[in-house]
Amino acid sequence: MKHFILASTSTLFGETYLAYLQPAMNVLYEGVDEIIFIPFARPGGISHDDYTSKAAEAFAQIGVRVRGLHTFDDPATAISNAKGFFTGGGNTFLLVKTLHEQGLMYVLRDAVNNGAPYMGCSAGSNIGGVTMSNTNDMPIVYPSSFDTMGLISFNLNPHYLDPIPGSQHMGETRETRIKEYLTQNTTPVLGLREGSWIYAKGDSLTLEGALSARIFEAGKEPYELPPGSSLANLQ
Amino acid sequence: MKHFILASTSTLFGETYLAYLQPAMNVLYEGVDEIIFIPFARPGGISHDDYTSKAAEAFAQIGVRVRGLHTFDDPATAISNAKGFFTGGGNTFLLVKTLHEQGLMYVLRDAVNNGAPYMGCSAGSNIGGVTMSNTNDMPIVYPSSFDTMGLISFNLNPHYLDPIPGSQHMGETRETRIKEYLTQNTTPVLGLREGSWIYAKGDSLTLEGALSARIFEAGKEPYELPPGSSLANLQ
């Protein structure tokens, strides 16, 4: 049974790492004593070891041990045998490049589809979509493909931001960028605001958190979906 | 003699398209009566024809005719024979994908290196750098390479934005993103604020406009360069 969380952000303003997600993590990882952490997105260039320590500290609070994927001699076998996963945020291009280079993207997808609980935040959520094409990140490295796990049948835009009223900046708004995507593609995009996450359990797929999400579909005006909405038919 | 402008933005807040650049364009395109416009970045999904009309209207004010690159049967030959170029902003991924697909990126580079005046704005400036890796745009399509013309020996971040004081948004700042780039690459990055442009004439390369630029180099703290500074040694 598929069981995963794809969250907009790891951290809310003024809170500690993963704090707001802890109740949801208690449910997701129930009965799991150890997970694999995927540190490849390296926010701010942090090392794999340091990033894994940061995740381990947060997971210790729910009684789950953490081992970094980079520490295994045979990461593909480690993924296939793992009891659960967490992929942290950072740079999506670096994350996707590393997973494809090591041949791990679809090994991870299969493990999650076979029932190992998965949580992603930000870049770690982007790879739950069909492609990484709606990341906000800078293309600091060139991945061999933008294709990602496709745990869901749409794409995510984490850290979704509404246009800022009165802004004099002439760069594109988030909405403009996603609309440009839909001139070239037909996959729907869900703008996931900070504090929101998607929760999948078996055939159920819902929007969680206190905020609505903004949905972008080709040929339609963007619209809002309230928290608690089913996303099972978005494709 | 190389002669080009790479501008942060086409339009300043409250102004018309290319208005603030008109004095610089008068110098750049002196003696030129027709240029090729490269419309491939398609901001907001605008058609190649409509985008070319918009450029033509602005260039009419300096007495220069405009023809869209998409209208030529043999665009490579057209580029080689052209008297000058302008590449408009929009989505850098779409621009770079189209230029590589049609085998035009290095034909254009050679024409500019051979002396045809070139102006780029935003995405059109990104392709003047070594790679497109410091664009702000969303990866809506997958280019065959991130390599660009390398008219300059560094990369550009157009529409450069300083961190917003007091922001509660947890997405990365522009500075964080560029610093992440420098954990994976050694090419310097110039953060070009709206209203600034780079001007090359022969061996001279300077920062123009009223604002300073922010320079990011591997292993150094970012620093500001005032307007008028030479950029000839940034590499």
TrEMBL record, chains A, B:
Keywords, comma-separated and alphabetical: Dipeptidase, Hydrolase, Protease, Serine protease
| Highest taxon, organism lineage | Bacteria
Please name the InterPro entries in this protein's record: Class_I_gatase-like, Peptidase_S51
Q: One GO molecular-function annotation for this sequence?
A: dipeptidase activity
Query: EC number(s) per UniProt?
Result: 3.4.13.21
Report the family membership.
Belongs to the peptidase S51 family.
Q: What is this protein called?
A: Dipeptidase PepE
Annotated organism of origin: Chitinophaga hostae
